[in-house]
Design a protein that fits this description.
Blueprint lengths: L1 H8 L1 H34 L2 H28 L2 H26 L4 H29 L5 H29 L2 H5 L1 H14 L15 H14 L1 H22 L1 H8 L4 H25 L6 H18 L6 H32 L2 H33 L1 H21 L1 H4 L1 H9 L1
Helix pairs in contact: 2-3, 2-5, 2-6, 2-8, 3-5, 3-9, 3-15, 4-5, 4-8, 5-14, 5-15, 6-12, 6-14, 9-15, 10-14, 10-15, 10-16, 11-12, 12-14, 13-14, 13-16, 15-16
């Protein structure tokens, strides 16, 4: 009881300390991630190597998420945040030492480090998602999710620029040690953060049975289940278009590498603005309404991008539409996450989030497999048209289906 009282009385200081730690450790980790990709690009110049690196970064989330959830529900949350950071730091030290001694990094060792980093994230992501509802009052949960989105978007804006600057002025082994710095900062801050712990069940972890239990829990809430499926379809359609942003800029609009970078950055700036709106104005009585609007806005802006003229004016419109799409994007992810967090007790949330993260993550690589050949066959701009129309159809389904459209109203009644 004393711990719960502390969490309520001091929750703002506590959660902002936690978000600060996420920002500082996250930005150092992303700098290293970008540096590794740039190193592979510079050393090999191989699209196959880069594709393999991207796939290795995604596979652990897809394959392990359903089985990580049971451990998240039954394990001390601080330990689940601290131990993966320490493991990532140890891997960084090994990689850096090899670089100092040999002045190069074997590709196989780089791939192993990418897999371990991805496994670490697979444990940390559902842990963070599952502890937020225990750290803040229920009526502030949507706002805090929005502010977490702000932190993540800010990392996506700052890390590439800072990483490129550091990549140019310091050696790669030293740059990799930023992961160690991030782990030290993250672990130190987490030690001072209060995370309420709920009683753990004595029942042994049964991986397959627990994964099925998480799937059954998610499917038992029909409105959430349908929205998760729509999110999976949306990701399947959206990812191929998003992966083609550089090609759209440089091939379709005949732009430069710098302009391609600007397009990537403006999307993240838009997402930061969207997260800020949710973070400070996010107390909606019906969150389905802004969620549906976000799907329509993303669909319209994406679809319109495919019909733009192939000139500088078209590029300027592409820039503007991309910014609007970025603003809309956090509304779907953040509001859906807040509703899931409020729909299940904390001791079951890890298993539910494991299944949801796996479904959402699976759609990305599947879409990416077809992105290149499809763009070559029908034109990169038509990928944007397909993504836009598909997203609009998903939004129409959520709106027309009474179970999804009314889900949050019913949830708010239960909470009250």
């Amino acid at each position: 009881m004393e711990q719960e009282t502390f969490a309520i009385k001091n929750w703002r200081r506590n959660i902002y300390l936690f978000l600060t730690g996420q920002f500082l450790s996250g930005i150092t980790s992303m700098i290293v991630q970008y540096a590794i990709i740039w190193y592979l690009t510079k050393q090999t110049g191989s699209a196959t190597v880069l594709s393999m690196a991207t796939l290795l970064g995604m596979l652990p989330m897809i394959l392990l998420s359903p089985f990580v959830g049971p451990y998240v529900d039954r394990t001390n949350k601080k330990a689940l945040l601290i131990i993966p950071d320490i493991i990532a730091a140890l891997v960084a030290i090994v990689l850096a030492m090899v670089g100092f001694l040999t002045h190069e990094f074997p590709i196989w060792l780089v791939f192993i480090s990418l897999v371990i980093r991805a496994i670490v994230q697979t444990f940390q992501m559902p842990t963070i998602q599952s502890i937020l509802p225990t750290m803040v009052p229920q009526d502030q949960l949507t706002k805090i999710n929005g502010q977490l989105g702000m932190v993540q978007s800010a990392n996506y804006i700052i890390a590439p620029a800072l990483g490129a600057f550091l990549f140019a002025i310091i050696s790669m082994p030293v740059l990799i040690l930023f992961d160690v710095l991030g782990a030290i900062i993250g672990v130190t801050i987490i030690l001072f953060v209060k995370i309420p712990e709920y009683p753990k069940t004595d029942e042994k972890v049964r991986v397959l049975a627990d994964a099925k239990f998480g799937l059954d829990l998610l499917r038992s809430k029909k409105g959430l289940w349908y929205m998760t499926l729509m999110g999976t379809v949306f990701t399947l359609l959206f990812m191929p278009a998003v992966s083609m942003y550089p090609l759209m800029t440089m091939s379709y609009f005949k732009g430069t590498v710098a302009q391609a970078g600007i397009i990537e950055m403006i999307y993240s700036v838009g997402a930061l603005i969207g997260g800020t709106i949710i973070g400070f104005l996010g107390n909606w009585s019906d969150r389905i309404r802004p969620l549906i609007w976000s799907m329509f806005i993303m669909g319209i802006t994406m679809g319109m991008s495919g019909f733009l003229p192939q000139n500088y004016t078209g590029f300027l419109w592409f820039f503007a539409l991309n910014a609007i799409s970025g603003i809309a994007t956090p509304f779907f992810n953040t509001l859906l996450m807040a509703m899931i967090q409020q729909s299940y007790p904390p001791e079951q949330l890890g298993r539910v989030l494991g299944i949801m993260n796996s479904l959402m993550s699976l759609a990305g690589p599947v879409g990416l497999i077809f992105a290149g050949p499809l763009a070559d066959k029908i034109g990169v701009n038509n990928l944007f048209v397909i993504a836009g129309l598909g997203t609009i159809v998903c939004g129409i389904f959520v709106f027309m289906n009474a179970t999804t459209r009314n889900y949050d109203k019913e949830l708010q009644k239960e909470i009250d």
